Amino acid sequence: MTSTTTGLPDRYRPIDQLAPDEPTPTGVIRSWRARDRVLNRDVALRVHTPGGPAARAWIGRALTAGGLATPALSMVYDAAEGTPDDSPAAYVVNEWIDGQTLAERLESGPLPEREARTVVRRLAEGVAEAHRVGLAVGGLTPSTSSCGPVAWSACSPSRPPRAPCRATSPPSVRSWSCA
Fold first, then answer.
1. What is the pTM of this model?
2. Beta strand 90-95 pairing with 100-101
3. pLDDT in tens, 12-50
């Protein structure tokens, strides 16, 4: 069975559309916070319409990113393309990182130097790991980055930043988190 909202398996129930539709040279990408009914947790769901060769390449990059064993990159849980009878869309499902965006955090003022160095270092580690396997990383901005609730204390200047920050590589929703 498929969702009437996304055209994807009912396993993923959309909760909120995260951003306006993102036009690409090959179609449109929609980003959702969704509920994975099998894993019983929130996930980040990106849907590429239409399916086809460009969507399959997008899925391939996601699966490559999912194979990286580093805490600097978010987990890829699922990636597939619907059949023509099913859905002319492809999707990638990533770990959902619940928290404040870096842009929201910066509204209260600049990060303390130690925290800023930690964030930049962890993001750079994620980008370097993605580049190691041939993935280009773009679009890492304060508004597309988030930090989970545990992260702010873990990365605060009052304690040594022990937890790694995670940056997702394309095609997922890009974010960082200190776990």
1. 0.71
2. unpaired
3. 999 999 888 989 888 898 989 999 999 999 999 989 888
